[in-house]
Amino acid sequence: METEYKGRLTYAKGTSIEFVVAPNQDVDFGDILVVEGTNKDKFYIRAYDFKVKSRWSGLNGVGYLMSKLDENGQVENQEELDFYMGGNHTVKIGLAEQLCYVNDKGQLLNPKTCPDFFCQIRTLNSEDTSLLSEIKGDLEIGYLKSGRGVLNMPVGIYGSKAITEHIGIFGTTGSGKSNVVKVLASSVIDSGNYGLLIFDVHNEYYKDLSSHPASKDRLCVYHTDVKEYGKTITVNFSEVGPEDITACATFTEPQLDAIYKLSSVWQDDWMRYVLKYDAKDIIDEVAGCTGQKFHPRTIGKIKSICWNLEQELHVNEQEATVVADIISQLEQGKVVLVELKNVSAVGEQALSTLLSKKLLTNYASKTDLERSLIKPVLIVLEEAHRFLGKKENSSNNVFSRLVSEARKFNLGMCIVDQQPRLLADKVLSQLNTLFILGLASKADRSKLEAMCRKDILQQRNEIKNLDCGEMIVATNYMRFAAPVKVHKFEDFLQQREIDYTSPISVV
Ligand SMILES: Nc1ncnc2c1ncn2[C@@H]1O[C@H](COP(=O)(O)OP(=O)(O)O)[C@@H](O)[C@H]1O
Ligand SMILES: [Mg+2]
């Protein structure tokens, strides 16, 4: 990539920098530039503001120029005015903030010192390898944006660092969240080093992801229907725990109590028995074992929910269900889609709770050695405030447990939402990687500014003006929040196809 000379440093204090923009050069808000230090070191800076100054900027100067205009403020003699404006009489000063520093050995560090007076300022180029490798990651998402341009410099995340530290993807409807998830999924397919479990509430991913050249081996899809693609979900009675039921509807205290009593009396068979016996027999049996006599209506409600789930999720007595398959595919580093569009809210909550809990229990039960042999898994949860909202989170469901405990076990959550302000603070504060897309509401933007560990306040204007498919990536191992133009999935895939089919030399 060609380097362009952009100007020279005129002032530095702490991490603040001012530079004169070279004549005939453009610098935009948000441009990331390089100050060439005098000791073979480099300073990466981001322009955030400008001021234009002239030898005529003073009150007398302005008065003098004004005297050259007619009484309507119009130019009388353009040539004369051009003389006053031209030459070196006017300068544009860029204001920038130092982002990070590369020493003469190529080590990327947080700002350590100031650059010297009149150092040269240039655009990024392919020799800025330390910076580029830090932002490149192993799961590519898009290209680095600099001001109004898009640089040919890939930006992504390092799955091994980011997944277990949780990811948040936030943006208003139409800002490009689903596209980010598709691009991320397709990078995960390329990599093979991570598992990805996506709860697909709109059935919007299979069609696109199945056109990935490696999808045959690395993409698995499940649904509750019978379709020409994918597998139908079946669950064994013993796989449904009381928590999966309590997660999916609102229950009164006695109902909750009854659910836990039933499961403690009948263990793994509790749901099967609840469906098999009448309410009266159930009440007698529980009363016999625990001394507690439940109301027939309490048991009735539980029976009814269990019945709905049995129908919808195909709960049966067969030993071989798909739950174990899903877990093992994730362990092997595959992308598993669970299509939930045709499932009721109750079924969706029960199924996503059940699968996430099985995954957590499975990973938690492994020794460190065993865990080192299986892949880290990221769980993508859409419209996450339904599970991790201010109220829901306090109920300590499986997702809030995942957010607080999963990193120990090599699991992570990817929380997708259009209204981050609805999420519990405790959840937001645990998200160490943020993909911030366009957010129409100021309340949402302020919430993220307040919760984000990276200081993104300086990029407030940029965030406000993000177009569809543009985002700011802030992650705790990256030294600054990077503006990114996300790949459009279709284009990204086309590029993949070229990569996959590039001719292997024929002997
Ligand atoms: N990075 C991008 N480049 C180009 N177009 C995009 C990009 N991201 C999203 N789009 C387009 O914008 C529209 C909305 O994107 P989508 O991902 O469905 O948004 P959301 O899920 O946030 O509602 C889609 O038609 C998509 O093709
Ligand atoms: Mg969407």
Unreliably modeled segments: none
Shape descriptor reads: elongated
Q: Which range does the strand content fall in?
A: 15-25%
**For the terminal residues, how far apart are their CA atoms?**
35 Å
The name CATH uses for the topology of the largest domain is Rossmann fold
Number of strands: 21
Radius of gyration: 29 Å
State the major sheet. Answer: 12 strands, mixed
CATH top level of the largest domain is Alpha Beta
Total count of domains: 3
The number of distinct helices, counting runs of at least 4 residues, comes to 22
CATH architecture name of the largest domain: 3-Layer(aba) Sandwich
Task: Summarize the structure in words.
37% of the residues lie in helices and 24% in strands. The relative contact order is 0.13. The mean pLDDT is 92. The chain has 507 residues and is α/β, with parallel strands linked by helices. It has three domains: 5-127, no CATH class; 153-233 and 322-492, Rossmann fold (3-Layer(aba) Sandwich); 238-312. Adenosine-5'-diphosphate is lined by residues 171, 173-179, 468-469, 486, 488.
Short description:
This protein is of the alpha/beta class. It is 37% helix and 24% strand.
